[in-house]
Design goal:
2 domains; seven-stranded mixed β-sheet; six-stranded parallel β-sheet; Rossmann fold; 28% helix; ADH-like_N; 323 residues; 15 strands; ER; alpha/beta; NAD(P)-dependent alcohol dehydrogenase; Quinone Oxidoreductase, Chain A, domain 1
């Protein structure tokens, strides 16, 4: 089978198209013919190994010292079940499915084996493989954090870094909760954010949201780049600050008391569950959320796709199609 292999840590040139053996499902696993995957910022971080200094050694030991131990990257996919292994009753041959690979990775290939109990579910009939592949990582991360905030109808929600895979899902999920949503990103992404339901948009290059006097019930910093103290001061007294990708300094600051009591600061890593993906699938089928696709690249052009994602220009998702 074709696969894009990460031969070492470094720039996108380390990704090479190779022929690998087709995997064979074990008991409890399914073999999936991958039709589409995506490139996320996380994929680029693993490939380049650009992590904070204090995380460098433990992550190097986990992912591989000289090169990635799991050398086929890719964290989400959509495809068809080709073989359902013994002792696996959730899926059958021919099922159109989408899901997340978790730390197993492996979506940048023609085929993928995963336990049937993984974060996988059947696709809504209306969706293409390219559309479905964009949902798992962004959708489950956004759902994880927004549920922590327990958003109520009428609340004001600010989403910083709203133009990516997690942010575009967060905008739509917050709107479905009845919130008034303000989305922050670069100017070229603002029209797209309005089109998916944002009530207000801010170009971070032109306006400092901490200086306009607005306060919010929930602030979700997807990218982890907002100034901590000023962001906290933009919260209402009982507001919630969700840190989606906090820096080490932000993690330290969250342990310190804030100026006004009652505010909550929440960080963490999303857990991927099939039941959450089924919930997102239901919202998709009902038209309450929709995929946001910027560009589609063939698997053979994965290097170019990684360069594009690292440029910071992508609107929503960049899809990789296995054709």
């Amino acid at each position: 089978m074709k696969a894009m292999v990460c031969t070492r840590y470094g720039p996108p040139e380390v990704l090479e198209l190779q022929q690998l053996d087709k995997p064979v499902p074990k008991d409890g696993e399914i073999l999936i013919k991958v039709h589409a995957s995506t490139v996320t910022a996380g994929d680029c971080e693993i490939r380049s190994f650009k992590f904070p200094v204090l995380l460098w050694l433990p992550l190097r030991l986990f992912f591989g010292v000289q090169k990635p131990r799991l050398d086929v990257l890719g964290q989400e996919f959509a495809g068809e079940v080709e073989v359902a292994g013994d002792e696996q009753t959730l899926f059958k041959k021919g099922d159109r499915v989408f899901g997340a690979t978790g730390l197993k990775l492996g979506a940048y290939a023609d085929y993928l084996c995963l336990p049937g109990s993984s974060a996988i579910t059947r696709m809504p009939e209306e969706l293409s493989f390219e559309e479905a592949a964009t949902i798992p990582t962004g959708g489950m991360n956004a759902l994880f954090f927004l549920r922590k905030a327990k958003i109520q109808a009428g609340q004001k929600v600010l989403i910083i870094g709203a133009g990516g895979s997690i942010g575009t899902m967060a905008v739509q999920l917050a709107k479905n909760s009845g919130a008034e949503v303000t989305a922050i990103d670069s100017g070229e992404k603002l029209d797209m954010l309005l089109s998916i339901g944002a009530d207000n948009v801010i170009d971070y290059r032109q306006e400092d949201f901490t200086a306009n006097g607005e306060t919010y019930d929930v602030i979700f910093d997807v990218a982890g780049k907002s100034p901590f103290s000023k962001t906290i001061n933009s919260l209402k007294p009982k507001g919630v600050f969700l840190m989606g990708n906090p820096s080490l300094s932000q993690m330290f600051r969250r342990l310190l008391p804030t100026k006004k009591g009652g505010r909550k600061i929440i960080a963490g890593a999303a857990s991927y569950k099939a039941e959450d993906l089924r919930y997102l699938s239901k919202l998709l089928a009902e038209g309450k959320i929709k995929p946001v696709i910027d560009q589609v690249f063939p698997l053979e052009q994965l290097r170019q796709a990684h360069y594009y994602v690292e440029s910071g220009m992508k609107k929503g998702n960049v899809v990789i199609a296995n054709r």
